[in-house]
Amino acid sequence: MSKRKSTTLSTQKSGFLALAITDFTTTISEEMDGLDMSPDRIKIPSGGVTSFEMPAEDGEDTISVKEFSGVIIYHHPLNAFYATKYTGGSNPPDCGSFDGVTGIGDPGGSCKSCPYNQFGTGENGSKACKNRRRVYILREGELFPLLLSLPTGSLKAFTRYVKQQLSKGRKLNAVVTKFALKKAVNAGGIAYSQAIFTLDRVLEPDEHIFIETLSEQIKDYSKSVGFDTDAVAINDEDLPFEHDTGEEIQPLHGASATGDSNQ
């Protein structure tokens, strides 16, 4: 498949049941034994670009996508602290957390009270420990989820969206979410790309039954996905201030598979 500059992925209501008879865990164990199990990533570009970078069907290239839809089947916090400046590669952080509560490594312990998890300890007033949120997204007609790693600048919008759905009595895995990007500017005048989330549609009951089962399987699968899957370098995505109010952005804490929060 040749590289395209831009496209839009549409939603087809029947797609989530196309693979309902397929068991994700069985497929992994039978077909992926000894192979790289890391999910393909959806990348948020830097500099205020408003198109996602999505994996192409041939697996060798990416395509630029203005928006896409899918079900958030699982999401959880990810904290990563590097004692020296992270410059890329697959090196694990000196301290990391997959639940946003307890760090493993040096210094380890409570993330809430850790001095490196405070604004002002990193570059440009950011945190030395990078707070992100991993979001596993299933597109219609597919069995393997894609991974979107939300940087600090997108966490407030995501928190707001979670609350909106919970206020309607809906978990995130009960709805199809539309993802897009907008250009934002932080208090220092630096442009960055901020994810925005809107409701596409509510799943049909039979669709939701299938998705709930898959959500539990993906939750277990996510434990095998290492830190090297995420780009945790300090860049203009990891900014501490809301662009229009100057308000500090607080990360969404607590593990949640379907939109529950322990805040």
Question: What does this 3D model show about the protein?
Answer:
By secondary structure, the protein is α+β, with helices and mostly antiparallel strands. It has one domain (7-229). It contains three helices and eleven strands. The chain has helices at residues 24-31, 152-167, 205-222, and strands spanning 7-8, 41-42, 52-55, 62-81, 95-97, 102-105, 109-110, 129-138, 146-150, 175-185, 191-202. Strands 1, 2, 3, 4, 5, 6, 7, 8, 9, 10 and 11 form an eleven-stranded mixed beta sheet that branches. Strand 8 (129-138) and strand 9 form a beta hairpin. The radius of gyration is 18 Å and the shape is globular. The model is unreliable at 1-13 and 231-263 (pLDDT under 50).
Brief summary:
With 263 residues, the protein is an alpha+beta fold. It has one domain (7-229). The protein has three helices and eleven strands; from the N terminus they run βαββββββββαββα.
Number of domains: 1
- Work out the helicity level: 10-25%
Q: β content, as a range?
A: 25-35%
Distance N to C terminus: 44 Å
Query: Roughly how many Å is the radius of gyration?
Result: 18 Å
Order of helices and strands: EHEEEEEEEEHEEH
